[in-house]
Design goal:
The protein is mainly β and 127 residues long. Helices cover 6% and strands 48% of the residues. It is built from 1 helix and 9 strands; from the N terminus they run αβββββββββ. Strands 1, 2, 3, 6 and 7 form a 5-stranded antiparallel sheet that branches. It has a 4-stranded antiparallel sheet with strand order 5-4-8-9, with no helix packed on it. A hairpin with a 4-residue loop joins strand 8 and strand 9. 22% of the residues are buried.
Length: 127
C-alpha cells in the first residue's frame, strides 16, 4: 500500500495530515529588534476526525549561512491549530517578532517551500 493511499484511507491524527509544499513566509523589518512575519500554509486532514496539532517552523538548509530564516516565526509560537475532518485549510500566521536576542537573522525577504514540524503531544512529523 502506498503511503498516500494509507494517509488518505486508514491514517489517524497527524499521520493523516498532508501539506502541498507550497507554503510561504514573508518578513519585513520594523525596527532594529523587530520583524513583521507572515506565513501561509495549506494543510489537509484526510481522516474522518478533526486533528489538533502544534506547528514548529524549520529552516531549510542553505550552505555557508548561519542566519535564521523561517524558524524566526517560532518566536511568536507555539502555534496550535485544528483542521476539521476531511478538510483542506489555509493557515495564516501574522506576528511582530522580537529578534533582539537572535544573533543571525534575516532583515526581510520572502521564502517559499516552507518546512515545518507537526506534533500532537505524542508523535511528530516533518512536512
Amino acid at each position: 500500500m502506498s503511503s498516500a493511499l494509507y494517509q488518505e484511507t486508514l491514517a489517524k491524527g497527524i499521520s493523516a495530515m498532508s501539506y502541498d509544499g507550497s507554503g510561504t513566509c514573508d518578513f519585513e523589518r520594523v525596527s532594529e529588534d523587530e520583524l513583521n512575519g507572515e506565513c501561509q500554509l495549506l494543510i489537509t486532514n484526510h481522516s474522518g476526525d478533526p486533528v489538533t496539532l502544534e506547528i514548529e517552523f524549520l529552516d531549510s538548509y542553505i550552505p555557508d549561512t548561519d542566519h535564521r530564516l523561517t524558524s524566526l516565526m517560532n518566536k511568536g509560537g507555539p502555534y496550535r491549530i485544528t483542521v476539521e475532518a476531511d478538510h483542506e485549510k489555509t493557515v495564516e500566521f501574522k506576528e511582530v517578532l522580537d529578534v533582539s536576542d537572535v544573533p543571525y537573522h534575516v532583515d526581510g525577504g520572502g521564502f517559499m517551500n516552507v518546512h515545518f514540524k507537526i506534533t500532537d503531544g505524542e508523535r511528530e512529523r516533518v512536512l
